[in-house]
Amino acid sequence: VSNTLWGQTPLPYDLGAVGQTGCTLFTSIDATLTLSGSGPSLAALFSIPRNNALVGARFYIQAFVFDPGVGALGLTVSNAVASIIGRQ
Fold it and tell me: CA–CA distance from 15 to each of 10, 20, 35, 85, 88 (Å)?
């Protein structure tokens, strides 16, 4: 839900400090969704309740892909996406 803080940690955070050279944490980690598949891309579908209180809410998405040959944590990290909930 944040792109400025994850707990007490300011964002963006250079993951080189934990052995993931060239990777950056851009978003707080408030929820996770595990996907499996193969190939160059995956798609995830999720529902947002029809609730007017959510209109205008911002959320941020960043992917972490298990990649055993990369860095100390064995992860490849994506860029981040900022989203705003709208009406349809």
Answer: 12, 5, 22, 29, 38
Say how far apart CA 88 and CA 77 lie, in whole Å. 32
Q: Where are the beta strands (DSSP E) in 7-85?
A: 9-10, 13-14, 24-25, 58-66, 75-84
The string of pLDDT tens digits covering residues 53-65 is 999 999 999 999 8
The yes-or-no verdict on residue 69 having pLDDT over 90 is no
Structure tokens at 4: 């400025």
